[in-house]
C-alpha cells in the first residue's frame, strides 16, 4: 500500500519571490493526487519545512503555512521537518509503517533539495518510492532553468531510487 507524501507546498515557496516553474499546474496536480489518495483510502502526509528561530521560516511563520490552494479535508497528517530529507528526525517512517504503507508517492517542492533527498532516503529505509514526474517543481537558479532541473532529477532518480510515473497514470 502506498501513502501520498507532499513536500513543502508552503506559502514561502509556492508564493515566494522566486516563482516556481509551473506552480498553478503543480497545485492542480497535487490536489488531484490527494483526491485519488482519499478515494483509495490511502494516507496523505504533508511536510512543512521550518528553520531556526529568528529565520524567515521559523516555527509559526506565515511562510511555513501550507498554500491555501491545497484542498485539505482534515484527515491529512501535517508535520514539520527541519532537514531536506522528510524522514530525517521526523518519525515519518514509523508513521508510514503504522498505517500499513510500504511505499510513498512523492510530490511537491523543491526538486533539487527536498524531493531528491526524500526519494533517495525512502529506498534506504525500505519503502518503495514513486516520484510523480509532473508533480514536483522548483525555481530557476543562476545555473539552470527549473524545467531542466526537474527533467534532470526525473532522469537521475528514476530506476535506482524510485519509479517515475505521470500523475494521470498513477492509481493508489
Automatic annotation (TrEMBL):
One Pfam family named in its UniProt record: Isochorismatase
Entry EC no(s): 3.-.-.-
Keywords annotated in UniProt: Hydrolase
Organism the protein comes from: Pseudomonas kulmbachensis
Name of the protein in its database record: Cysteine hydrolase family protein
CDD domains: nicotinamidase_related
Keyword hit for Heme: no
Keyword Hydrolase: yes
GO function terms (MF aspect): hydrolase activity
Any coiled-coil regions, as ranges: none
Superkingdom as given in the UniProt entry: Bacteria
Domain Isochorismatase-like: from-to ranges: 3-140
Amino acid at each position: 500500500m502506498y501513502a501520498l507524501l507532499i513536500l513543502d507546498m508552503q506559502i514561502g515557496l509556492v508564493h515566494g519571490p522566486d516563482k516556481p516553474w509551473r506552480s498553478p499546474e503543480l497545485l492542480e496536480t497535487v490536489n488531484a493526487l490527494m483526491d485519488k489518495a482519499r478515494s483509495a483510502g490511502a494516507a496523505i502526509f504533508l511536510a512543512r519545512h521550518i528553520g531556526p528561530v529568528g529565520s524567515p521560516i521559523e516555527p509559526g511563520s506565515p511562510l511555513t503555512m501550507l498554500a491555501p490552494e491545497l484542498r485539505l479535508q482534515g484527515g491529512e497528517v501535517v508535520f514539520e521537518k527541519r532537514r531536506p530529507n522528510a524522514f530525517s528526525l521526523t518519525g515519518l517512517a514509523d508513521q508510514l509503517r503504522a498505517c500499513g504503507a510500504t511505499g510513498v508517492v512523492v510530490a511537491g517542492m523543491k526538486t533539487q533539495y527536498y524531493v531528491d533527498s526524500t526519494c533517495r532516503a525512502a529506498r534506504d529505509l525500505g519503502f518503495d518510492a514513486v516520484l510523480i514526474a509532473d508533480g514536483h517543481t522548483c525555481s530557476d537558479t543562476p545555473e539552470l532553468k527549473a524545467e531542466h532541473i526537474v527533467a534532470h532529477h526525473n532522469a537521475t532518480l528514476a530506476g535506482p531510487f524510485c519509479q517515475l510515473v505521470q500523475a494521470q497514470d498513477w492509481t493508489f
